[in-house]
Amino acid sequence: MRRIEVVIIAEGPAEQTFVRDILAPNMAMKGIFLHASLIGKSGHKGGDIRFERAKSYIGNFLKQRPDIYVSTMLDYFRIDSDWPGKEQVSRQVKSGAVLSAAKKAELLEEATRQKVVESFGGNNANRRFIPYISMHEFEALLFSNPVVLAKELSVDPKIIQKILAECGSPEEINDRPETAPSKRIAVLTNGYRKIAMGKTIAESIGIPVMRRNCPHFDQWLTTIEQLQKEP
Description:
Blueprint: E1 4-10, H1 13-28, E2 32-38, H2 51-64, E3 69-75, H3 86-94, H4 101-120, H5 125-128, E4 129-130, E5 133-134, H6 146-153, H7 157-167, H8 181-188, H9 194-205, H10 207-213, H11 215-225
Parallel strand pairs: 1-2, 1-3, 3-4, 3-5
Helix pairs in contact: 1-9, 6-7, 10-11
């Protein structure tokens, strides 16, 4: 088993902590070593992620070492309206098309990949860059197990189950300001501490359960795992 190194550019401290403390140990057992890099300066709280800034971070890592891969963990809820593919998604929705979370992510990630390859093709970006947009927020993953989430929030599991019934699955929990995953959790608990509570809940649920219930998240990790099979 060869050593695979992947830098994941995270949107905020909660995502950075999740990658570093929860996801990285799980993937290390497969010879894949994840390094979480926070976009922005120290103290950055996440949100309002602009593509040009993200592209600069992606390019810097692609240039630094030719033997590493670069990925992202950015919230759909937080990326700006000028993000590659965002206008296409909005246009289709306005025309009446019903797009699943997976389809939105597919459009955004492919558009993102194309823009990065255009800018850093000389750094083998087509092979080394693996975009991932979290639908719709990191907190969506915490709805993978309603019983565990309810216990951690000290609420009736039926409340969490009702949200899932309305939306269909964790990754479909919507992106309106008042109904985004983190907003829903904040309403259910007194003072949701995004980093500490997010980590505790994620540890209790575990990566395998998240993968079973969040197909797009699972697809991202599967793509990274497939790097072990590259020549």
